[in-house]
Amino acid sequence: MNPRVEEMHFPDLDIPIRIDRVSPVLPAGPIPVGHGDTLYLSNLDDMVGVRVFTPTVYFYRPLCDPKPVTKTLEDALARVLVPYYPFSGRLRECGNGKLEVFFEPNQGAVLVEAHSEMSLGSLGDLIVPNPDWKALIYSFPSEEHYKVIDMPLLIAQVTQFSCGGLSLGLRMCHCLCDGIGAMQFLNAWATTAREGFVSLSPNPCWDREFFRARDPVRVEYPHLEFSRIDDESTLTRSLWETKPTQKCFRVTREYQAFVKSLAGDSLSTTFDAMAAHIWRSWVRALDVKPRDYELRLTFAVNARQKLKNPPLREGFYGNALGVACATSSVIGLLNGPLADTARLVREARLAVSEEYLRSTIDYIEVDKPKKLEFGGKLTITQWTRFSLYESADFGWGRPIYAGPIDLTPTPQVCVFLPEGREDCDGTMLVCICLPKSACNKFKELLYNF
User: Fold this and answer.
1) What is residue 96's predicted lDDT score, i.e. its pLDDT?
2) Family assignment (predicted)?
3) CATH class for the domain made up of 224-447
4) C-alpha distances out from residue 202 to 41, 83, 180, 199, 374, Å
5) Active site residues
6) How many CB atoms lie within 10 A of CB 160?
7) Can you list the alpha helix ranges (DSSP code H) found in 211-311?
8) Average pLDDT in the 287-312 region?
């Protein structure tokens, strides 16, 4: 076993939760919209892949100063909803199925107060995401899967445990913010709760018109990330026909550097090399057939620094993501060296230019994808650059764990997470879904190449 990679285990749990209160949280002061007003969402905010809520959970140790936690969070949220007023609206469809934010009286975010007779210690080591934490994130009774229309755009559940510890479970609508934008909002909320007054750095700006489609539209790239592909491989069936297992691996900085060295190219980043290694290992473990089937690896690229004409304003918290797409046949991944796969990842990443992003916007304008395409695809989501832990100190310290809980509803997604320890020195967690029959093979490939 490679000592630089460690499989992390989590316990099976049944967390009894009692919901004490479900309350709307309205902006604490005037906002620049009224009854019947709307806000434009860009095509990047309206992509089918972001018409979802992103669930995350944050765990906190027992408080030395047991101040009223829920009241503190509620008051701070109400204050922050003034500058971040779009989170107090709702989504609806307008022309051609496009989404917009609309405002009516008494909408607001939702805050849920809950408690559990369990202690945090009963949950085991809070190190890696555990699907059994789902009780800590609120869903409405009989809520439809993937529903975003006419839903609160921010839903927060505060659960207090018998030991005095607590969790904050969040559902934020991806249409309003990408990961960087979510961290900006979370930091504003946490800082306001900690300091007792609204603290914004930077000031939020909406600016979604920045990403309007051109007139006339110019689709200048093939955009394989959105292609509708008949899934004639065994890949998707093997993941969706049986309930997959969520696996997590602790990957040290030294191991990441080792994988990068095996990629053999100074132009490839650590992400390029690790994404290539995970993709190849996953496909090999799944024994995908036929061997000539064309596979896709997709991942989001933050385009903020690529936008020059003009640049985005600081404080923009919407979706500024391009979707990179690397392609390879199964046989190419099985037989080719890691360096070749890393090069494919690097080229896909670098291809997301300002021109590519504008072409993406125009593509969605003329041929909006209506559903998620899973054919032959693995999607890697990189959370290691998000300030998950630094942005979430509401006055009771850094969270023990911060991040997602359950990948199994979309088992073709792999997440790279930062480790929660303050001295982790670049160690990350790789979380991925596999059929039980492929778990041992994937672990062997991850450890031993």
Assistant:
1) 81
2) Belongs to the plant acyltransferase family.
3) alpha beta
4) 21, 11, 12, 9, 37
5) 174, 393
6) 20
7) 235-240, 253-263, 270-286
8) 94
Task: Output phi, psi for 348, to 5 deg.
Answer: -65, -40
Q: Is 403 helix (H, G, I), strand (E, B) or coil?
A: strand
The bridge status of strand 428-434 relative to strand 401-403 is unpaired
Strand, helix or coil at 351?
helix
- Digit-coded pLDDT (tens) for 109-130: 999 999 999 999 999 999 999 9
Q: With CA atoms as reference, report the closest residue to 251 among 72, 30, 424, 440.
A: 424
What's the CATH architecture for 5-211? 2-Layer Sandwich (3.30)
CA distances from 434 to 40, 284, 292, 295 (A): 39, 12, 22, 17
- Alpha helix positions (H), 39-112: 69-80
3-state secondary structure 100-123: EEECCCCCCEEEEEEECCCCHHHH
Q: Backbone dihedral region of 416: left (phi > 0), alpha (psi from -120 to 50 degrees) or beta?
A: beta
- CA nearest 352: which of 225, 236, 440, 254? 225
Q: Is the dihedral of CA 15, 21, 24, 28 positive or negative?
A: negative
DSSP state of 146: T
Q: Where in the chain is the domain with CATH 3.30.559.10?
A: 5-211, 224-447
Average pLDDT, the chain: 94
The angle at the Cα of 448, spanning 447 to 449, to the nearest 5 degrees, equals: 110
Note if the pTM is more than 0.85: yes
- Residues in CB range of 185: below 8 A, 6 or more apart: 80, 84, 87, 172, 177, 204, 317
pLDDT at residue number 84:
98
3-state secondary structure of 178: coil
Please count the other Cβ atoms lying within 10 Å of the Cβ belonging to residue 7: 14
Contacts (Cβ under 8 Å, ≥6 apart) of 70? 111, 113, 158
So what's the pLDDT on residue 64? 61
Q: Which residues share a beta bridge with 18? A: 115
CA distance 31 to 435: 49
Dig out the tokens for 360 from the structure: 């993406």
Distance CA 408, CA 132 (A): 11
Task: Name the 3-class secondary structure at 429.
Answer: strand
Q: What is the pLDDT of residues 217-271, one digit of tens each?
A: 999 999 999 988 777 789 888 888 888 999 999 999 999 999 999 988 778 999 9
| 192-204 CB burial, b ≥16 within 10 A, e <16 | bbeeeebbeeeeb
Q: Nearest CA to 188 among 172, 177, 201, 178?
A: 201
Q: Residue 263: which residues within 8 A CB-CB, separation 6 or more?
A: 272, 273, 276, 338, 339, 342
pLDDT in tens, 144-173: 988 999 999 999 999 999 999 999 999 999
Cα 383 from chain centroid?
7
